[in-house]
Amino acid sequence: MAETLQTLGDSTFQRLKTMILDGTLKSGTRLSEKKFADSMGVSRTPIREAIGQLISEGFATRSAGGTPVVNSISLSDIMEILHVRSLLECEAARKAALSGKSGEELAAIRAQLCGFLEGARPSSEDHTALDMKLHFLVARMAGSKLLVELIESLKNKTCMYDQGSLPDRLEPGCKEHLALIDAIAAGSPDAAAAAMKVHLTNVREAIISHIHHPF
User: Fold this and answer.
1) How far is CA 99 from CA 102, 106, 177, 186, 188, in A?
2) Which candidate, 98, 198, 112, 176, places its Cα nearest to that of 142?
């Protein structure tokens, strides 16, 4: 029974986490045990467990009154996050280029990126999902479990930042990712690290530009 509840708690956490990352649950949204238990067709226990995990991983926090709410990421937070990501992910890209691993996965992602550029415009959800997949793959190729965990946590927080109002980065982002993939596939650690640096710097600059020129 305990194992079933744990599994249900994990799946409930994943569902709520996905809703936060895709913007369905906006920052400040109250996480009511009863509301989500009713809407998801589960008891309050897995909801309570999931909310506790969301809080421990930074996706939610408790308000002054103790009510759990979806966390918010400020501009200063995202600037710091992108700085730390650059330090970690440039090193991950360098290690990935030296690993000689995951050639088929990289090739598959490359084909999807080319499809985004050449075919019908993808949904923001599909674009975000592929973006996450590539960054997490590069982290795994680096061969460090801790590095993977840190990058995944910071990448998730990036996705939480001001959903729906970030500047359109589809075309430049795809081209930057292609340069990164090509450098890794070529086994060029310096070029891979440089490509990742360019990508994350451009994300940062796009956010700053959008703040000063929102329209």
Assistant:
1) 9, 13, 18, 11, 11
2) 98
What 3-state DSSP class applies to 153?
A: helix
Residue type present at position 81: I
What sign does the CA torsion over 177, 181, 183, 184 have?
positive
> Is 73 in contact with 36 (CB distance < 8 Å)?
no
Question: How is residue 87 annotated by DSSP?
Answer: H
Both tokens assigned to 52 = 């506790």
Which H or E run contains 215?
none
List, in sequence order, every residue forming a beta bridge with 69; answer none if it has no partner.
30, 61
- The reported pTM is 0.78
Rounded CA gap, 156 and 20, in Å?
10
Burial of 149: CB neighbours in 10 Å, binned 0-12, 13-18, 19+: exposed
The tens digit of pLDDT for each residue in 72-120 reads 888 888 899 999 999 999 999 999 999 987 689 999 999 999 999 999 9
User: What does 95-124 look like in DSSP terms, one character per residue?
Assistant: HHHHH---HHHHHHHHHHHHHHHHSSPPPH
Domains of the chain and CATH, by start: 2-70 (1.10.10.10), 75-212 (1.20.120.530)
Q: Long-range CB contacts (< 8 A, 24+ apart) of 83-87?
A: 84/154, 85/151, 85/154, 85/155, 85/158, 85/200, 86/196, 86/197, 86/200, 86/201
The C-alpha atoms of residue 206 and residue 199 are separated, in whole angstroms, by 11
